[in-house]
Design goal:
about 300 residues, alpha/beta, 9 strands
Length: about 300
Amino acid sequence: MRHVYRLDEVERRLGKLPMREHEGLRATYERMLEMGPDRFQVKPSGLPAMEHLYDELPNFHEVLDDLKRQLALCTDSHDALEITPMLLLGPPGVGKTHFAREMAQLLGTGMGFISMSSMTAGWVLSGASSQWKGARPGKVFETLVDGQYANPVMVVDEIDKAGGEHAYDPLGSLYSLLEHDTAHNFTDEFAEVPIDASQVIWVATANEARAIPDPILNRVNVFEIEMPDAEAARRIAGKLYRSIRADHAWGQRFVPELSEAVLEALSTLAPREMRRALMTAFGNAKLDGRDALAVRDLPVGSVKKASIGFVQ
């Protein structure tokens, strides 16, 4: 267990609130007192099984190797699990956010998700002052206070698309959050109570690095994620087909494996596009009364390179 905030500080702040004012802030402090400051700090006793991730995510082997090295350092010691913040660079749909979710599931620490593409201020990260109408705590605060873990995986999606007022840097709070020493006393602007965010595991995603400030790049391990090659893409498509088939009752009405022609067609797509294409194909095959998917079932325009000689 790890203390993520001090109860006496919360009680002091609550005691100073004027009666019948700041209802949202009062509710936040009361929730903090009710939840208590202790959170689980997950630490593996041994290296978790990662072979399936190497198989399912063939274009993430470099990231998985780095993660494995860092996990190995703490498995036979009393040290807490520490993962250096990482930035995953790659084209849309390559699987960056999916990798972050798989990483959170592997570690068992839960996950917070922040999309920067629609953000116009840094409030989503660090909260907004309670003096503002409709103000609320930031995502970092909420994930630690409302969650069960002191070291959740926090995904900052599309960090290169962060917008905002010119006078306000939406990524400003990350400068201290990504530093282990300063993250010990991170103060959300809404609650104004220091919380320990030093154990948060940060994963940022971006299409390119040009729009990311140097202070962020200097604090993270940068990994460039390429699109999987044709053979790896075929394996991903096959696994995705089997996963969708297993997750739905109607899936048992379809054959266990995809045909070579459909695998070839799907291998031209990004992993994100594969799922949408497969769901469309399942529906088209069902409407046509067939138990096997055909190339013609895939969405129009999704097959970038038609395979000569195949009719299915």
